[in-house]
Amino acid sequence: MFDLRKYKVKKIIIASTSTVHGTGYLEYILPELKSFFNKVKTILFIPYARPSGISYDTYTEKARVAFGKINIQVKGIHEFDNPEEAVLKAEAIFTGGGNTFELVNQLYKNDVITSLKVVVESGTPYLGTSAGSNICGVNMMNTNDMPIVYPPSFDTMGLIPFNINAHYLDPDPTSKHMGETRETRIKEFHVFNKVPVLGLREGSWLEVSNNDIKLKGELSARLFRKNKEAVELDAETIITQEILA
Question: Which residue ranges run through the membrane (predicted)?
């Protein structure tokens, strides 16, 4: 059984995506972020996943524009001489999406993955989207990304006692594609692993306060556990130890 009591996380948002169809970057969740970061003046942005290989500066500017709408300044971790010190001193932290393999690789390369876990478990507010959400789980093994680099470990922060499958897609009954579905791939994971996996659909997120983990947004999420049928969790569900068992 997975013991929630060992997870000391304080204040986290774990979002499936940064952008939903028809809206701008972080636009759909900005009202939530305004409340979540209500006492924060400056947020540390971790752009290591950098989608499509854009520069850290370009990615950070994108985050800066979005957070500027709620009067929060953004500094990129790459702008500091000492990344670990930047993490330890941050008021709040945002890790953006992109490629999870590259994100995890850079977190280990810059020796910040342990300090990141420590500060978040100590109460530093944290926002993750996509790849930045994947690293909140026990490991990154349920990412949808291609392995463009080989990180030293697949282990991530373990802030929650399960893994995230961001951008979860349901099978399309009209599709003629006969390959694997997302559900099939997660079941393959469970042939060799016991860690529960939560499929987060676009526009959904988890709100973590102390040890309470609540599903937010308008859509349900799909929970997969080894040797059990997948179940749908409705919005506003609090994910308890009993649900994960």
Answer: none
